[in-house]
Amino acid sequence: MATDHVRLGIIGLGTEGNMYATFLSEGKVPDMTIGAICDIDESKRADAEKLGVPFYDDYRAMIDSGDVNAVVTTVPHYLHPEMGIYALEHGVHTLVEKPVGVYTKQARELIDLAAQHPELTFGVFFNQRTNPLYKDLKALLDSGELGALRHTSWIITTWWRPQGYYEQSDWRATWGGEGGGVLVNQAPHQLDLWQWLCGVPKSVFAKCAYGFRRDIVVEDEVNALVDFGDGATGSFITCTHDMAGTDRLEILCDRGKIVVENSKIATITRLTDDERTLSDGMDVSTVRKLFRGELDKDTLMSEETKDYGTVWGVQHVEVLRNFTEAVKGTEELLAPGGDGIHGVRLANAIHLSSWLDQEVSIENFDEDAYMAELNKRIADEGKYPTRA
Questions:
Q1: CATH number 3.30.360.10 given to 130-309+343-381
Q2: Which CATH fold topology does 6-126+313-336 show?
Q3: CA quadruple 348, 351, 353, 356: dihedral positive or negative?
Q4: Nearest Cα to Cα of residue 51 among 24, 28, 31, 14
Q5: Phi, psi (deg, nearest 5) at residue 215
Q6: What is the pLDDT of residue 76?
Q7: Does 169 have pLDDT greater than 90?
Q8: What pLDDT sits at residue 310?
Q9: With 70 as the cut, is the pLDDT of residue 312 above it?
Q10: Quick one: pLDDT at residue 3?
Q11: The sheet that has 256-261: what strands, in order across it?
């Protein structure tokens, strides 16, 4: 169902929706224009009128109107699958914001429906996958040059949020309205990138703090240890109460190491041979020289550092451009919608492990156990209906 021009319906004209509308009105995405805007806030009608596009207060009416042939969902997380399913069922290409769903059952319903409509383009808005830094690292790791994964860690605590942030919307930081805290709001991009680069973990053991430094019921601090199999492990640390913040990704492999600081400076160390081979072939005298700093490290490794700079905004335009080309049939999606379930499952598994205080399988994730625990928390809130 390829088309030469995409008329995008923006569902939700908040911060993200306004940003996309601005990009399109400025002509930054070739062959994509705003087809219509939808928001339940009637005051947004004036914004649509300024842009000269139709306004709807019901996304179904917008999809049914014929004004759009694609939509992007910039709405509370629980609504992404519902809106995506309706769009796909009515022949409209669909780009959902992250996360693709709050829980795996919900995400799979959307993904399975999309699989029944291969004529339609279904993507997830993982703009970090367009970042040249991560694209280069993905290519390097996939090439096998650095060998097998041994350990990886990501400390990403640059999400500082004041109490007022959580109080600006009733649905924020709730189990029934948002589905979680930092894992579903701030960190989905890193959860996606981590498994995209290193592979999907097999299991996780996690400790989460709920309402630790903020007056909320969901998690504002996370410490997770994952098992990738074959002895490879990883750790993921995030929170929303660190004003200084740290963003450091390390990926250790058999033949080298990657360190990324602040999501822009990558240092790649390449060993001259497999680490185990270097270890087995090193005699005691050489070890002494190494420890004393007398050994020329160039005989063991080389180091390369590259500063990729800041590419905020450019990433979002690139997702829209890539999605447009995918609709036209000229490019493959960099972030197919089906990929969205991996980060959702990892977040769900981290929650479940923390709730049950035990290691949780990701390979054979118990969706029913997760839903039972989630619904307990939604019921305790007393603000929203439980989920099926």
A1: yes
A2: Rossmann fold (3.40.50)
A3: negative
A4: 24
A5: -85, 75
A6: 87
A7: no
A8: 78
A9: no
A10: 80
A11: 301-307, 265-271, 256-261, 247-253, 149-156, 232-239, 219-229, 203-210, 360-361
